[in-house]
DNA sequence: TTAAAATAGTTTATAATGTAAACCTATTTA
DNA sequence: TAAATAGGTTTACATTATAAACTATTTTAA
């Protein structure tokens, strides 16, 4: 019942979890927005977004706003499911 | 309000979190009990218990049961506070 | 008008971390 | 008495997280 199931290592990471948490509520967010909200460095954020994308948890779209590059992220269905499963699992550890 | 405060790295670890979770409910547990419940290897558990002890989150007592070594762990007040703070913080990420 | 600073990131190097394999010592069993 | 079991610890390795350094473009200041 309250067995400790493995916690998805992709989500059990402070910054990636914060990113997913944000993406769940806004459903589309810019790189700079995520950077500000998570108070992370750009380098760290860039790396972690890549990992989430490679896992299929988020989609990253690169475009331009005016003349400047613009990176936009949104959560996928796979990502949403994974997040929910992670939270459900985690509850057995903290409740 | 829902800022992402840093998650205590000592607790944001699958095995250590499971151990703390167990110790909160039983308040005294043997090495082998923790090993079984967490389904960890002895080596891994040994290392993680050391870290928790060095942080002052648990107390480890070594004795003998009959002729065999017996390692008993219990959570400290510091550990309890840290766990509660961790969980409180974590809620901002997952709720 | 060109040097400096800012924007929006990516790549790379490093340090920390988690994990299991290998190891140790004593005890029990065959 | 040899082999297996109990109860761990130490160590080596591979994975990670993180920030520093870097790239490329654009805006601002002198």
Task: Please provide a written account of the structure.
- The structure is a homodimer of 95-residue chains.
- With 95 residues, chain A is α+β, with helices and mostly antiparallel strands.
- The first copy, chain A, is 55% helix and 19% strand.
- Chain A has helices at residues 14-26, 31-38, 42-54, 77-94, and strands at residues 29-30, 58-65, 68-75.
- Chain A has a three-stranded antiparallel β-sheet.
- In chain A, a hairpin with a 2-residue loop joins strand 2 and strand 3 (68-75).
- The longest helix of chain A has 18 residues, at 77-94.
- The radius of gyration of chain A is 14 Å and the shape is elongated.
- Chain A starts with 13 loop residues before the first helix and ends with a helix.
- The mean pLDDT of chain A is 96.
- At the A-B interface, helix 1 and helix 4 of A face helix 1 and helix 4 of B.
- Chain A binds a DNA duplex (30 and 30 nucleotides) through residues 9, 13-15, 31-32, 35, 40-48, 50, 66-71.
């Amino acid at each position: 019942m309250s067995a400790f199931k493995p916690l998805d290592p992709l989500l059990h990471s402070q910054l990636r979890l914060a990113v997913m948490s944000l993406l769940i509520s806004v459903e589309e967010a810019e790189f700079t927005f995520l950077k500000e909200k998570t108070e992370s460095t750009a380098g760290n954020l860039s790396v972690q977004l890549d990992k989430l994308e490679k896992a299929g948890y988020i989609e990253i779209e690169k475009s331009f706003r005016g003349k400047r590059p613009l990176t936009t992220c949104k959560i996928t269905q796979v990502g949403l499911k994974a997040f929910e499963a992670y939270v459900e699992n985690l509850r057995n550890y903290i409740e």
